[in-house]
Amino acid sequence: MVNELHGTHSDVGLVVSVCAGLEIPIMLLLGAMGRKISNHTLMIIGCIIAVFYYTILSVSTDTWQLIAAQLFQATFVAIVMGNGLSYFTDLLPNSPGLSATIYSNGSTIGRLVGNLGGGSIAQFAGFRNVNWVCLAIVIFAFLILWRIRPHYEMDVATGHSQSL
Fold this sequence. Notes:
- It contains 5 helices and 2 strands; from the N terminus they run αααααββ.
- By secondary structure, the protein is mostly helical.
- The chain has a two-stranded antiparallel sheet.
- The longest helix is centred in the last third of the chain and has 30 residues, at 96-125.
């Protein structure tokens, strides 16, 4: 922000605090809506929101655009962090330990590779190109989620559908 968009250090603090301040209320809101929207649908919505976020980051010309984009980032983070484990539990309903392990290890590896990769790309190709790479990864994740639909089976005893 400071070097590319000529913003101030106060702008950087505002961007970080706006996102952090919005994440928990959005997580609570999504938790309240949890019965109405499936985890799979939420993950797809999260990818769409991330596409908007990384597009704005890639083409922004002023700091106010990044500040406004924090609503998208907070929503994306709230979906991934708040519903990621539930999504994996839905995929493996009979193996809660395995689903928690996959989610935890995937999150750890993703943060490690993301930070190292983002730093490397920024060093050699510039910060803007990090956003374009993130945009490509999010689109790829969206396509995977779109292609892999969870299968639902009707529970005869309760009349509710369950994911397999």
